[in-house]
Design goal:
This protein is mostly helical. The protein has 2 domains: 47 residues, no CATH class; 100 residues, no CATH class. The chain is 74% helix and 0% strand. The longest helix has 34 residues.
Length: 189
């Protein structure tokens, strides 16, 4: 047969958890099991949020890629940026809003533009716990004193983690390619 392809069993096995989850959701719905229905409903909400939010994240990444030259990122956030580079990534992280999964594509783009490993990890830590909208809610519920104390404890931890990861991975760590070019004769026609 011309153009027939064989199915890779490993690829099929990779989808089994998703199909098991889907089957559990369907069985929960028809069986009336309320915890299963609640989990499946929350999953639907999460997927809906991602569908709405991820295009905005990718637009931001596209703008960063198009508008910010690699040399500028390397100079301000690269290997020799020191404490000023850490300050810049913390400010950048604080200005963003949204769920943590939105930080990873931005961190990847920063790394590709020449941001140091240390600053990438500081950015991810600051994004997870220091965003201005999140801190403002925290102040409203727990008070200014608690929020400032928490920030005073978490910020040094993120900086230490960034330094440790840079020492473990090496300052010149090169990221593996996420997608490799198709092998000769296996590409799209």
């Amino acid at each position: 047969m011309h153009g027939s392809k064989t199915v890779n069993p490993k690829a099929v096995i990779g989808y089994l958890p998703f199909f098991a989850f889907l089957l559990a959701g369907i069985l929960s719905h028809f069986g009336g099991w309320k915890p299963g229905i609640a989990v499946f409903s929350r999953f639907g909400d999460f997927v809906g949020e991602m569908i709405l939010f991820l295009p905005l994240v990718f637009m931001i990444i596209g703008l960063i890629d198009a508008w910010i030259p690699r040399e500028a990122v390397m100079k301000r956030l690269g290997e020799g940026s020191g404490s000023k580079g850490a300050m810049w990534v913390i400010i950048l992280a604080m200005l963003f809003a949204g769920p943590l999964y939105a930080a990873f594509p931005v961190a990847l783009m920063l790394r590709k533009k020449g941001c140091s490993i240390r600053n990438v990890f500081i950015y991810l830590g600051a994004f997870s716990a220091m965003k201005i909208p999140m801190v403002s809610f925290e102040i409203g519920f727990l008070g200014l004193k608690f929020s400032l104390l928490r920030l005073a404890f978490t910020l040094p931890v993120f900086i230490i983690i960034g330094i440790l990861m840079e020492n473990i991975m090496g300052a010149g760590y090169e990221m593996p390619e996420l997608m490799s070019a198709p092998e000769e004769g296996h590409g799209c026609r």
